[in-house]
Amino acid sequence: MTTTFQMRIDSNIKKRAGKAFKKAGFNFSTGMRIYANSVANTGRLPLDMITANGYTVGEEQEILKEMDHALKFGKRYTSVKEMHKDITREHD
Question: What percent of the chain has pLDDT over 70?
Answer without folding.
Answer: 97
